[in-house]
Specification:
single chain; mainly alpha; 7 helices
């Protein structure tokens, strides 16, 4: 039994290494899509003047659902285009790595909304950024190396902002919090998506 499990793990690792280029190609549109959703949500939050804590959280949790659904559809379309099953063993490994930190971030968000609606918005913002960075870093063990670096970038920036935010603007500043969300979940993703497109190996004509 243990030998069968070890063999399965080796096969998954080999498949992940073989499909590294495929995952990298899929990441680019996903990053651009998620980044676009983040930027639009940030601009929308500013335009609609969403300031109340619960409204702020509901707005960004809704944006997260839109981003997640779109990323799922993009990945599924890529799998179908390559003639591969979507829920392959490698996909399951990536999902299993990302779910715990994403679920932790969601639970913390819901707890803040339900049990402590008076908490500052920036706590919701930066806690979710930290958990999300952990999820991206975990996925990076099964995907191109840049994903782990991207996860670390989010974690480091969120950690710095966690201490700097209450010092820089101790008073409530909805605009700044929307800008932080747009930066973490919008601009950073757009920049990484552009980088992936720009550095993607091009096929040379025969």
């Amino acid at each position: 039994m243990e030998q069968n499990v070890a063999t399965e793990h080796l096969q998954v690792i080999r498949t992940l290494m073989e499909r590294s280029a495929v995952y990298r190609r899929t990441l680019a549109p996903i990053m651009l899509y998620v980044g676009s959703v983040g930027v639009l949500a940030s601009l929308g939050g500013l335009a609609f003047g969403i300031e109340a804590f619960r409204a702020f959280c509901a707005w960004w949790l809704g944006a997260a659902l839109v981003a997640l659904a779109g990323a799922f559809l993009i990945a599924r379309r890529q799998a179908l285009a390559d003639g591969e099953p979507f829920w392959s063993p490698p996909t399951l490994r990536v999902t299993q790595a990302m779910v715990p930190p994403l679920a932790a971030g969601l639970l913390l968000s819901l707890a803040l909304v339900v049990l402590a609606p008076g908490h500052p918005r920036w706590l919701f913002v930066l806690a979710n950024a930290l958990f999300y960075g952990c999820a991206v870093h975990a996925a990076g063990f099964f995907m191109p190396r840049g994903m782990k670096l991207f996860g670390w970038l989010i974690i480091v920036l969120a950690g710095v902002a966690l201490f700097a935010r209450p010092v820089v603007a101790a008073a409530a500043a909805a605009g700044l919090d929307h800008a932080l969300m747009g930066g973490f979940f919008g601009l950073l993703h757009l920049a990484y998506g552009v980088y992936l497109y720009a550095t993607e190996p091009r096929k040379t004509a025969a």
